[in-house]
Specification:
CATH class: Alpha Beta
Shape: globular
Number of helices: 3
Low-confidence stretches: 2-7
Order of helices and strands: HHEEHEEEE
Mean pLDDT: 89
Number of domains: 1
Distance between the termini: 20 Å
CATH architecture: Roll
Largest sheet: 6 strands, mixed
Oligomer: single chain
Number of strands: 6
CATH topology: Nuclear Transport Factor 2, Chain: A
Strand content: 25-35%
Helix content: 10-25%
Length: about 190
């Protein structure tokens, strides 16, 4: 995918212009295509070397306790990964030893409601206003074997960073599922 020229830093918290917004959407569509095609090694190239990939668990709470409904760092999480640990998972898929993915799942990643802002260094460590703070909604359909079907819905909060060649990479991803109890037999899908 060709990337737009490197843009200058924006004002922290300000929405990105339409060209940057379009570029981010195209980045997400390419990412979805790689995941759905099972091209996981190519997907890894879209991730920064210092990636933080986190999917906390969620519990049902009363309205007054909503702040406690999402697990904090260090508590239970479906994923708490680095690029290296994701690469290890992908190598395991390719080894034939990941029985939960043999035969492999078929997935369809739908990404929508993309909101792109320039990152606010006051809200995040190790970011600059050249980085992009992106929220999106997703729906992931997964089918395996004859009768295994799962639907995962939720939101992603990403920090996207430009590389030296001007392309984008995911530096941080927080995935928040809308489900508090997963009906899936396993969770081997990337989001």
């Amino acid at each position: 995918m060709t990337s737009a020229p490197t843009t200058i830093a924006g004002v922290a918290g300000m929405r990105a212009d339409r060209d940057v917004h379009f570029e981010v959407e195209q980045f997400y569509f390419e990412e979805a295509e790689l995941l759905d095609d099972g091209r996981f090694a190519d997907w890894l190239d879209l991730l920064a070397d210092d990636l933080d990939y986190w999917m906390p668990t969620r519990t049902n709470r009363l309205r007054r306790q909503q702040a406690l409904s999402i697990a904090a760092r260090g508590e239970a999480a479906f994923y708490d990964e680095t690029k290296e640990s994701l690469a290890w998972r992908i190598r395991r898929f390719d080894s034939g030893m990941a029985w939960a993915e043999d035969p492999p799942s078929r997935t369809r990643h739908l990404v929508t409601n993309v909101v792109v802002r320039y990152a606010d260094p006051g809200r995040h460590d190790d970011v600059s206003t050249a980085d992009l703070d992106v929220r999106s909604a997703f729906l992931v359909y997964r089918n395996r074997l004859e009768r295994e079907e799962n639907v995962f819905a939720g939101q992603r909060s990403d920090i996207l960073r430009r590389t030296a060649d001007g392309s984008l990479q995911v530096a941080r991803r927080v995935i928040l599922l809308d489900q508090s109890v997963l009906q899936a037999k396993n969770i081997s899908t990337f989001f």
